[in-house]
Amino acid sequence: MARTNEDDGTANEPTSSRRAVLGLAAGTGLSAIAGCLNSTGGDGDGTTTQGDDLADKIVLQMEGGTMLDALESEAFGAFEEEFGTSVEVSLRSSQQSGYAKIQAGQAEVDFASVPPFTLYNGTKDDVWEPIDPDEVPNYESNVLDPLKNPVFDPGDSIHGIPHAYGTVGMAYNNNELDDPTSWSACWDSAYDGHVAPEGFGFIRVFTTALEMGMDPNDIGADSSYEEAIEKIWDRVAEQQELVVTNWTSGDEQARLFASKDAWVGEAWGNVIYGAVQDGNDHLSYTIPEEGAYGYTQNHALVKGISDKKRRTVLEFINFLLRDEILQPVTEKLGLPPSTSVTSEEIENLYDYDPQGGEGLKFPDVEYINEHNDEWSQRWESVRGN
């Protein structure tokens, strides 16, 4: 499987990173049995199109790291063996740079791996090709209902097909906290100097609204926006009195919680799961009873690709949503699948929602974009006090 670096066009050797950022900003081999796979989805749905109807190769834009490792080892080879199409990867240095190249028509790619904000922005900018659900039978039959037609995919059409989901939940030191269930633990004075929130304004608003019983996508619904947002910032300021660090990256949060400087705070479930696998047994993770920020990992088609490329990309997406493909992919990825396929390993993942996605609160990107400048400026003021 070929990888190309988008920045300079050079080929890259495979790399591995447990803590690759998989959303905001976060198994067993299957290739050996690829020839034995049938053409149906996990519950019998799906079709196979082969031969002249499919392209010889398709190109996926994404970052490297754990997600790429999982797809390479558990999906790409199996797809090529069954369908005769290779999946090549164009590596981007960041979501922002990759999206900018697609938007400018400078990326020779057919589809992209995108989180909620990029999916929303590309839909509004008319960068992603609409997808008819009938074109991806395993979307209708296998994908969890709360993950279909999310608020961050605007309009009546579908522009992204999810294959995994994650959360911004609560990490805690289980030697210091006894199974907390509420976000209020992040405001408990008993943990003064050991609280570690995520350091972005919109996340401070989002989680604080959840803790206060508000809808983070409709602040002030029961009063007024101005009154409610002031209450949120007052609550954020209270929390800042207890904070050790407001972290802003996956590596930083992992170091904070692993070092035991942070006892409680927001975290990405897959990062804390990786830290525990690395031997940090003092760490635990939960989705609080008020809910947690949720996101999906999606594939979106670049607008303007040929009909043959389109058919082939959709065939790959449908293939990825088969139970026997998605299970090992997500087990290696460390994020739960977008479908109901499960295993003991999946159910032990920290992001796993036993409610089938009902415990997740997805961001209304339009609402966040509307207020983000205001929130960012206010956050800098509150954090600086």
Automatic annotation (TrEMBL):
Location(s) in or outside the cell: Periplasm
GO terms under biological process: polyamine transport
Q: By its UniProt entry, which InterPro entries does this protein fall under?
A: SBP (IPR006059), Sperm_putr-bd (IPR001188)
A GO CC annotation recorded here is: periplasmic space
Which N-terminal stretch is annotated as signal sequence? none
What keywords sit in the KW lines? Periplasm, Signal, Transport
- GO molecular function annotation: polyamine binding
- Has the keyword S-adenosyl-L-methionine been applied to this entry? no
Domain of life, per lineage:
Archaea
Under Pfam families, the record lists: SBP_bac_8 (PF13416)
**Matching PANTHER family, A to Z?**
ABC TRANSPORTER SUBSTRATE-BINDING PROTEIN, SPERMIDINE/PUTRESCINE-BINDING PERIPLASMIC PROTEIN
Q: What is this protein called?
A: Extracellular solute-binding protein
> Which species is this UniProt entry from?
Halobacterium bonnevillei
Q: Tell me the organism's taxonomic lineage.
A: Archaea, Methanobacteriati, Methanobacteriota, Stenosarchaea group, Halobacteria
